[in-house]
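so ive been stuck on this for like two days lol. basically i have the seq below and the ligand is LTNE7NMQ, smiles is in there too. i just want the complex predicted, nothing fancy, no docking runs or whatever. if the output looks off dont worry ill sanity check it later, just need somthing to start from for the group meeting slides
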Amino acid sequence: MTAKKRHAIAGNWATLLLPIGVGDEIEFAKLSEEIDILIAAGVDGIYSNGTAGEFHSQTEAEFDRIQSMLAERCTEVGMNFVIGACQPDARITLERLRRAALLKPLAIQVILPDWWPVTDQEAIDFLKGAVDVANGVPLILYNPPHAKRVLAPEELGRICAAAPGVIGAKVADGDKQWYAEARQHLSELSLFVPGHHLATGIAEGVAAGSFSNVCCLSPRGAQMWTASMQEDIHAALGLECRICKFMETHIVPYRQRLGYSNAALDKLLCAIGNWGPVGTRLRWPYRSIEMSEAERLRDVARIELSELFG
Ligand SMILES: N[C@@H](CC=O)C(=O)O
């Protein structure tokens, strides 16, 4: 990955998780407290509206209120922030983008239109339109494994070559072959890999950082772990092995065996970490993992991943 990056964005990014009340409402006072805690944790940046931020379950008024709160707090203290203008409908995305750009985030993340899978040309047309509306704010394409169209590195590189305002991508990584293809086709983009693979992504010379599920578990711990990758990548890879084992053993079965969503898993991680007033509840109609499960796993996490809770 020797080519010059389009943008210097990098590091350990914490997602906003929505505190949801018993009546399915967003608890804005708790959200404000959560933002303060993340700022105090000293993460590299805070972002809104990935899957874990439940962008798919917000009215436009709620979207505006969440983004304004994030922008105001981060701007006050000089914390980097990224807004997710993600929405399956391309028109709603453009409207969210237009309003998000006014808040002057470091970047805005978008997904591809998501119901009928887009062709390459449709993806390019969409991204070019999004870049125009973003009015100079750079874009990050969020292309998770559950997207309707999941792009291989070569496809992603070709599509983003046509939209220079896209400066990064948030993707699931893969095997050695995936990393080789990423080095070949994506060297200009800042790539964000899943939190629990960040040390591998850095060791492979591919990842700029992560929009991180490890940060859901422990914002401070994930920040220290990320910093440690510059000092001792071997030790960081050792911790990554244990993080992956923890995820495989204690977290992923909630999705694979019991059918919970990824957002439910991220909120479980946050409740296990117990660092803020978030809880495990998701917005209707999605099912939430019981808080008692988080309570049961708190000691397990602190024993198996003690470095993250030091
Ligand atoms: N995929 C996640 C990563 C955070 O946990 C997201 O929703 O951004």
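Residues 153 and 181 are 6 Å apart (CA to CA). Residues 233-256 form the longest helix (24 residues).
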